[in-house]
Design brief:
alpha+beta, 7 helices, 42% helix
């Protein structure tokens, strides 16, 4: 999942106190095909899903879940309940609640200054001293409204060659 991979990279940058940018290339930033299966039961318990999201600080999972609760919406952490009882920990949910959390995570990551969201699909990835990326669609920013042409041009240039986390030794 590109969302989780991007979050892992952001968290790695944070932990290592490294400077860097992450190019996240996706056709739509809409959680992929999972949205088609919102009514299907997840194959992991609510507790496991919540623990997985919570383990990635860059997703700000619990904060986003609380915002949804304040708006009267069902959430994953809402299913766990305040007392975190044993039955709730083993409960299951429909994928729609996971999709909601992934949508929130996508927005959090795209707001992060270290993440450059580029609409497109990777057509070819070549490793040399620097990673070279060829994409199948013209790049366009997925950042918040208000970015100027200069920002978009720098993102296009980033796709020409990308160095992930600095040197080859830093690669994850």
């Amino acid at each position: 999942c590109g969302i989780i991979a991007t979050a892992l990279l952001v968290d790695h940058l944070e932990r290592s106190k490294a400077d860097g940018k992450i190019a996240w290339i996706d056709p739509s930033f809409k959680v992929g095909n999972l949205v088609r299966w919102r009514e299907v039961q997840a194959n992991s318990s609510v507790q496991v899903i919540c623990s997985s999201f919570s383990s990635l600080p860059s997703l700000r999972f619990r904060g986003d879940q609380r915002v949804r609760i304040d708006r009267g919406m069902r959430t994953l952490i809402g299913l766990l309940g305040e007392d975190d009882d044993a039955a709730a920990k083993k409960s299951w949910c429909e994928l729609g609640l996971v999709v909601d959390a992934l949508e929130d995570a996508t927005l959090q990551l795209l707001r992060d200054d270290r993440v450059i969201g580029v609409r497109g699909e990777v057509a070819k990835l070549t490793k040399g001293a620097v990673w070279a990326v060829e994409h199948s669609l013209p790049p366009s920013s997925c950042k918040a409204d208000g970015e100027d042409e200069e920002d978009q041009e720098s993102q296009r240039g980033l796709l020409a060659s990308i160095r992930l986390l600095g040197s080859d030794e830093d690669a994850v």
